[in-house]
């Protein structure tokens, strides 16, 4: 059973530990923001209207959407599962099971931290992108927020699945990377989905990264996300979440 006071105390401690890890802060918060500002400022084509994007500039919706996707995926598929597996590997969860604070409180605290970091990273990316590159604010804020919550839930559920089945930290880091990079590609990080062959784009539609990335881009551009992408994200969230709950081992 998760208790709110215990979870809050653990979240405060875990936040301090997270902030003491420069690599984690850099990769999940600084790197996506730096890529947006550096590439958006230095590559003129990113600031020119693109017919493939409906006349919008890449920095208006496509590029910010990809940076938000990158931040959430790094947290969900690297930071979260690695932390949980290391706690299990070192016996922290086993020792915690003998105290009034349950291991589930630590799991809840980790989720709170990672969700909080993803929100901060997204807010910085969008706000500084607006100030430096004149990217528009989300044209449909509540639509964007809904897509962000649903997509983040799906990806964190996948990350919890990795943590559930990985025997040690080395395996979970390797597995996370093996999942992360193909999903980033299918999400449109290196090849925009509009330029993908039809077959590849259809495959992308049914991945959490493809559905999330396109949903973010649509919401930032002021378009309604496709129902297919919302259904795919909901499906991944439910299936991966149930699998993680069934398979997760505290010891």
UniProtKB/TrEMBL annotation:
- Xref: InterPro entries: ABC-2_transporter, ABC2_TM, ABC2_TM_bact-type, ABC_2_transport
Q: Where is each ABC transmembrane type-2 domain found?
A: 23-251
Keywords, alphabetical: Antibiotic resistance, Cell membrane, Membrane, Transmembrane, Transmembrane helix, Transport
Q: Does the keyword Zinc apply?
A: no
Where, by residue number, does the polypeptide cross the bilayer? 23-43, 63-85, 106-128, 140-164, 171-191, 227-248
> Which membrane topology term applies here?
Multi-pass membrane protein
Question: Has the keyword GTP-binding been applied to this entry?
Answer: no
Please name the Pfam families in this protein's record.
ABC2_membrane (PF01061)
State the compartments where it is located: Cell membrane; Membrane
Q: Which family does it belong to?
A: Belongs to the ABC-2 integral membrane protein family.
- What this protein is called in its record is Transport permease protein
Give the organism the record lists: Sphaerimonospora cavernae
Organism phylogeny: Bacteria, Bacillati, Actinomycetota, Actinomycetes, Streptosporangiales
